User: Fold Mediator of RNA polymerase II transcription subunit like from Actinidia chinensis var. chinensis.
Amino acid sequence: MAYTLSSSFVLPLLLVTLASSMSGTTMVAEARHLLELTLPELPKPELPSIPTLPKVELPHFPEFPEFEVPKLPELPSFPDLPELTKPKLPAIPAVKPSTTSP
Assistant:
């Protein structure tokens, strides 16, 4: 099954390769001919002047009054809480590295 698929892919690829190799010399010669070709100088077109636009006047907006920010109510003070004792963790014994390999 894969053999028939590869042959249907290889044949068009081979035809494209042969066609491009046969026409390769003419493309190089045409490109060289284009490099040697001199074109007449064309006058540069002049751009029309841009008209000035009238200045737009923005309407006058009324000033907004400044509002007073209401004061936040004061929070009651919290009573002093006693400090809690930190629990002590037992000491972890250090593990000695073994010198024998298993």
